[in-house]
Protein 1
Amino acid sequence: MMQTLTKRGFTLIELLVVIAIIGILASVVLASLNSARDKGTDAARKSNLNNIRAQAEIVYDDDGDYDGVCGDSKVGEAVTASSATCNDTGTAWAASAPMVSTSTYYCVDSTGSAVENGTALGTNTVCP
């Protein structure tokens, strides 16, 4: 009686092809995660800047003007966390932070404006 040898398993080439496909899929997923992480950072920065508006009104209620808004401890925390720029005078204030996922800036100010544009705040107290 003749025995036939039956090979079970995968060849080295088959294994290498599967590993290569898994590597390609993993790189696509990691690229998507980086994009999502950047968008999450942008959302956090926008939230921090929007919270500055409420704190600035508290400073205004306490002092009667906007002078010192950027020096307020809670505003300072939000500015630091957002890598933002903050400017104030007795009559106005503005804060702006660069967005990570785009080459724009998000700006909020004492007029109620909240805009995203390509211009940095500079020394202004009104969003550009």
Protein 2
Amino acid sequence: MTATPSKKLDTFINPEPDRDYTISIKLPEFTCLCPMTGQPDFATLDLRYVPDRLCVELKSLKLYIWSYRDEGAFHEAVTNKILSDLVAAISPRFMRITADFNVRGGIYTSVTAEHRKEGWRSPEVVTLP
């Protein structure tokens, strides 16, 4: 049983590759270090994606997120890095990550980054009566 952080993102085959559906993952225990002060930064990551052929395996995602604990990173940089790594691993049709960082010096920071596969269009929203 792995109990150490890792940058490796494991994947598995999408069980419904012909259907657009959304996978939502909330990661409330993200931590990294402020590159200026070395103090810890805490955030909740909200990840939503429409898979194509692959999905990300959750335990590897947990270990991947854990790997940032001792790394210095600006909020904007780390949010975009996580998105880029996930897109490289699974090539989703669409992915959005929002990182809501806890207050630091009276300031809250929220960073949202998106990826859209070329040619993919979001399905029309159905409004029910």
Protein 3
Amino acid sequence: MRGDTTTVETNIHYPTDASLLNDCVRVLTREMERAYEIVGELACFVNHRRRAKTKLYLINNTRKEETRYEYYLELTRVTRAMPTCI
């Protein structure tokens, strides 16, 4: 068996902590939506994708370090609250 090991340059963004947290929220939402389709009303969740995306935008475009830290805390809270039922 032989495999191709050719490398190609791509435009991949550098994974920051905030972007990884946003990816977690996005993937958890997708998986919870799949579970909701299978189980129905037994699986309840709140979609926090918009909140996480807004916090990511604010983190990336904030100049003050203190304000950025507050947004990181809020994004962390959003990610932790993601799989819970409210």
